[in-house]
Amino acid sequence: MTAAYTTTATAEGGRDGRAALTEGGLALAFAIPKEMGGAGNGSNPEQLFALGYAACFNSALLFVARAKKVDVSKAKVTAQIGIGPKAGGGFQLEAALKVHIPGVPTDEAKALVDAAHQVCPYSNATRGNMPVSLDII
Fold first, then answer.
1. Fold of 1-43
2. 124, 104, 130: which is closest to 56 by C-alpha?
3. Calpha distance 7→83 (Å, rounded)
4. From its phi and psi, is residue 40 left (phi > 0), alpha (psi between -120 and 50) or beta?
């Protein structure tokens, strides 16, 4: 693969630290969520993953719909990311993508969502590595 774009971030202090993009623009203080025993007074990697996956999947949906000449400009993608213990040790992520496409029949919306799931870089990166559910809402 030849990368069309590359970005770099640096983190220190792990889940209770800070991370910033080296080119500037975004810097965050991280905090362990209360549900995982932390104070919960900051962002966490799962929140950033949810933001990125939702935006990227929405772009993939726009891409495949444009090729089929279907207007999905009002579509909304909600990404829910979970983290928990993995069988055998360590931790694992899971994702649930909820897609709302107003004015598009459910069967057509499902076909578009399935096609978007094949081209979305986040979906390609997670396929086979973590559970991802797709729901038309």
1. N-terminal domain of TfIIb (2.20.25)
2. 124
3. 25
4. left
Q: How far is CA 74 from CA 4, 24, 31, 101, 137, in A?
A: 27, 31, 33, 7, 13
Report the CATH number of the 45-136 domain.
3.30.300.20
Cβ(9)–Cβ(22) under 8 Å? Answer: yes
For range 7-32, the mean pLDDT: 95
DSSP 7: -
Where along the chain do its domains lie?
A: 1-43, 45-136
**Short-list 98, 2, 113, 93, CA closest to 48:** 93
Distances (CA, A) of 124 to 7, 56, 115, 132: 19, 11, 12, 11
C-alpha 132/C-alpha 80 separation (Å) is 10
* Residue positions counted in the chain: 137
16 close to 81: Cβ distance less than 8 angstroms = no
Give per-residue pLDDT as tens, 89-121.
Answer: 999 999 999 999 999 999 999 999 999 999 999
